[in-house]
TrEMBL record:
InterPro entries: CHASE2 (IPR007890), HATPase_C_sf (IPR036890), HATPase_dom (IPR003594), His_kinase_dom (IPR005467), HisK_dim/P_sf (IPR036097), Histidine_kinase_KdpD (IPR052023), Sig_transdc_His_kin_CHASE2 (IPR017181). GO terms for cellular component: plasma membrane. The keyword Transmembrane helix applies. The keyword Nucleotide-binding does not apply. Gene3D superfamilies: Histidine kinase-like ATPase, C-terminal domain. PROSITE patterns: HIS_KIN. The lineage of its organism: Bacteria, Pseudomonadati, Pseudomonadota, Betaproteobacteria, Burkholderiales. This is Histidine kinase domain-containing protein.
Length: 757
């Protein structure tokens, strides 16, 4: 090994170096020193620990610790709260529990209460008496106040009856997750530590922080409900000689904390389960400690120096493989130390340093190549056609000089072998923002950029192939040659490689190189989105034109009435002005139709009764002109839905307007709102139902002479809005005159009860 190092030193540093090599090696030394200083600083000030926490979480899940069968959790869950009278649970319940265990001679090895007993209750004396019959440990807290840390113990009568007291404080890390605890805090041991009977062995509070192995919540510890334990048929022997922890697990009590499994479980872990995990590790001696700072620095520097040396003396491929190997080794060392010795070596800082070093050094390499090639390119008078293999005749020699210099020589030789015309044209076509294709004077394809290749089926664009099949694919003919297509915009449509229809503008340009040499440039400009928005605009304008006739018709109807017939003429004038203002507001519907196609709506929780009342108010004058009564039957229970209020109200108005337009004169428009108590579908969704009924008018009585009976036009808007709100709508409107037409609208109801099938 010593001979190899000496040989490398002589071959690299003892031979005559060029100016570029001296500059390169000098920059590498400065770069390496800066990288090592940055790494040491990050380790000292604990930068980059967030990335290390991510690695720890994933490695911890791979370790998959198992729960001890010696630990049992008695859970105060929602079932227990329902059976035992809610929170807080009466201390007489704990009296019954302890008495039942002692009388049946099924005493646990230790009982820990993850519950604070600060307030006095009548059952305290009885609870203290029963606690003396067991090894009972109570919780205390050490809040940080203005005067420092204080200790809040349980009631004296309970504290004196307990075998021991322990704190249950939670220690969050910088990213907000919980991975460890302080074994001692305010000179008080943790509840799990005092239950285990082990001593903290004089550790300081600053050094008492330990990470612990967290059992996957999907596996969990043996857990029984408090209500079940108090039942007559519960086998109490399962608690005998066990470590029993009593605490809340009900989500409604809020005693849940974010852990490394919180994202996967979509919930935090109850505090009593956290203490069970700590007790599990203490009993097994598996609490996790950090490696010493010198060891952390040594391992991190080893990883970074290995990568720095690889960057200097290896080719890009070999250097990449070495870097990946170093990263793998750092992760494996961290995992093996965690599994074997319960020590945590954080590879995060060194991996972050490697991730920063590689692109920075790659930039320096690229800078040198660009500078070198710029000097050489100035000496070239023309490009020659490139060969298929640029590395032929020159091998890369590792450990002789930097590989960047070797690749620079390769590129220097390749520049003299490039073809001016093809390379220049290829660069233009490749970098063009639109799909482009170049064709020679014989209409043979020369090349195409990647965007053009991605748009057409494979096989249509091949080198030296004729362009005619490509034109036929676009629906164009070239009987007179490409010259007939020059100077015009041709609107074409075609399917791409994913069978998606695209619209394009096709252009042909002739580029002359000499008197008898020229090229054709064919381009496709994608206008699919423009066509899409144009169609959206056209449909919106159609919707706007259709609905503007409603307020106009109402205004004209009011104008035809004799003002003398009214006691208050100003009332009619007010209605006219209101409808005129409504006519101006109809311009907003242009925006509404565009908004209806938006991928996301601005939703809010609202009563459907309020939306229906607003819609009825907007159409009641139109209904009055046709002498149509509006009959409402609303559910007494509130029916909240999550909708875009403006769009949904506009949709209801559209339904009611069409119901009035095509409803029979002197008829009744019936509107009914109801909801399901419990839906029996597989998704367990409760629905709000809206039924709109009207009698179909004779063709001569319709407001407009349209061929369609029932509810008329505008149903595209209705279906779009209902669909975007995850609702359903059914039309039963193809009825003869005099029969009842029906629209049934269904929407998911908020705060609905669900049934688990």
């Amino acid at each position: 090994m010593q001979g190899l190092v000496r040989s490398l030193y002589v071959r690299i540093f003892k031979r005559e170096l060029s100016a570029d090599e001296k500059r390169f090696y000098g920059e590498w030394v400065l770069f390496s020193v800066a990288a090592l200083v940055l790494l040491a600083s990050s380790l000292w000030w604990q930068w980059g620990t967030s990335f290390g926490n991510v690695i720890y979480d994933r490695l911890h899940r791979l370790r998959a610790p198992t729960p001890s069968s010696e630990i049992v959790i008695i859970a105060i869950d929602d079932f227990s709260l329902d059976r035992l009278g809610g929170w807080p649970v009466s201390r007489s319940v704990y009296v019954d529990l302890l008495k039942k265990l002692a009388d049946s001679d099924n005493r646990p090895k230790a009982i820990g209460f993850d519950i604070l007993f600060h307030d006095a209750t009548p059952a305290d004396l009885d609870l203290a008496e029963q606690m003396k019959r067991h090894r009972t440990f109570l919780s205390l807290e050490t809040p940080l106040g203005e005067s420092g840390v204080t200790i809040k113990k349980p009631r004296d009568v309970l504290a004196s009856a307990a075998t021991g007291l322990g704190h249950i404080n939670i220690a969050f890390e910088s990213d907000g997750f919980l991975r460890g605890i302080h074994l001692t805090e305010a000179k008080t041991s943790h509840l799990a530590l005092v239950m285990s009977g082990f001593s903290p062995r004089g550790m300081s509070e600053q050094a008492s922080y330990r990470r612990f192995n967290m059992v996957n919540p999907s596996i969990g510890f043996p857990t029984v409900s408090l209500a079940d334990v108090l039942s007559e048929n519960f086998p109490l022997h399962v608690l005998k000689d066990k470590y029993v922890l009593i605490g809340s697990t009900a989500p409604s009590l809020g005693d849940h904390y974010p852990t490394i499994y919180a994202g996967r479980q979509a919930s935090g872990m109850p505090g009593v389960e956290l203490h069970a995990n700590v007790l599990n590790d203490i009993l097994r001696g598996d609490l996790i400690s950090y490696v010493s700072l010198p060891a952390q620095i040594a391992l991190s520097i080893w990883a970074l120096v290995s990568v720095l040396i690889a960057l200097l003396v290896l080719s890009p491929l070999a250097e990449l493989l070495v870097t990946l190997f170093v990263i793998f080794c750092a992760l494996m060392v961290s995992f093996l130390m965690l599994v074997t010795w319960s020590l945590w070596f954080d590879p995060g800082p060194c991996l972050v340093a490697i991730a920063l070093v590689k692109p920075a050094w790659a930039w320096r390499r690229m800078e040198m190549i660009v500078s070198f090639m710029g000097e050489k390119a100035a000496l070239l008078e023309q490009f020659k056609r490139p060969r298929r293999s640029l590395t032929k005749g020159l091998r890369l020699q590792h450990f002789t000089s930097d590989t960047v210099l070797q690749y620079s020589r390769l590129l220097d030789r390749a520049l003299g072998m490039m073809n001016e015309r093809v390379q220049f044209l290829a660069n233009i076509v490749k970098d063009a923002p639109n799909a482009m294709l170049s064709v020679d004077e014989n209409e043979a394809i020369i090349n195409a950029n990647p965007k053009m290749v991605s748009l057409v089926p494979a096989g249509l664009i091949r080198g030296s192939a004729n362009v005619a099949p490509f034109l036929a694919y676009l629906g164009l003919t070239s009987a007179e040659g490409l010259q007939s297509l020059v100077g015009k915009d041709h609107y074409v449509s075609a399917l791409d490689n994913q069978a998606s229809l695209h619209y394009h503008i096709f252009n042909v340009i002739r580029v002359s190189q000499s008197d008898d040499k020229y090229l054709w440039i064919l381009s496709l400009v994608d206008i699919t989105e423009i066509r899409y928005f144009q169609n959206q605009r056209d449909r919106t304008l159609q919707l706007l034109s259709h609905d503007m006739r409603t307020p106009i018709a109402s205004i004209l109807s009011l104008c035809r009435q004799d003002p003398v017939a009214f006691d208050d003429p100003e009332s009619s004038a007010f209605k006219k002005r209101r409808h005129a203002e409504q006519l101006l507001n109809m311009m907003d519907d242009f925006i509404l139709s565009i908004k209806a196609q938006a991928p996301k709506y601005k939703l809010s929780e609202v009563l459907i009764d309020d939306l229906m009342d607003e819609a009825i108010f907007q159409i009641k004058d139109l209904a009055s002109t046709r002498r149509i009564k509006i009959e409402q039957e609303f559910d007494l229970a509130p029916q909240f839905i999550l909708v875009d209020q403006r769009l949904f109200t506009r949709m209801l108005v559209n339904l009611l307007v069409n119901a009035v337009r095509y409803g029979a004169l002197d008829s009744t428009l019936k509107i009914k709102l109801a909801h399901d108590d419990v839906d029996n579908s597989i998704h367990g969704v409760c629905w709000v139902h809206c039924h709109i009924r009207n009698q179909v008018a004779d063709p001569g009585q319709e407001v407009e002479n349209v061929a369609q009976q029932g509810f008329g036009l505008g149903m595209d808007f209705v279906r779009t809005v209902v669909g975007k709100h995850h609702g359903r709508i059914q039309f039963d409107v193809d009825k003869p005159p005099g029969q009842w037409a029906l629209v049934h609208l269904m929407l998911p109801m908020m705060n609905a009860s669900r049934v688990e099938l």
